[in-house]
Write the structure tokens for this entry.
Amino acid sequence: MDAASTVRAYYDALREGDPLYPYFASEATTVKFGIGERLTGYEAVRAGLAEQTETTDDWTVESRRLVVSAADDHAWFSDDVFMAWTDTERDYRHEYDTRWSGALQRRGDDADLGTPWRFVGMHVSTEGATSG
């Protein structure tokens, strides 16, 4: 699986409620910025994504402009993504037009995902204020 297919597989896992943290490099320098959060280090990313999976449901993830480039064992991507999900603790539906960017590194497939690519950095943001 190439880097672009890995990004798409991550979107599929998000939609399906599957674990997301295996897609990230298990390094202290791994970072994930989400809407209203910063997770630094693999353990923080793992814990944050596990909590997200437990407390959200009914995900919509619509990729609108995925661009991926790669050179040797590194890749980078950007995308415009419509996202929606339900916060199951507050029974609140979120909907955002988001911007994604990030970097991946090719490593061994230690999580048996069918891809050697792991995110080493990811940034998800939305224009303007968020509510909920």
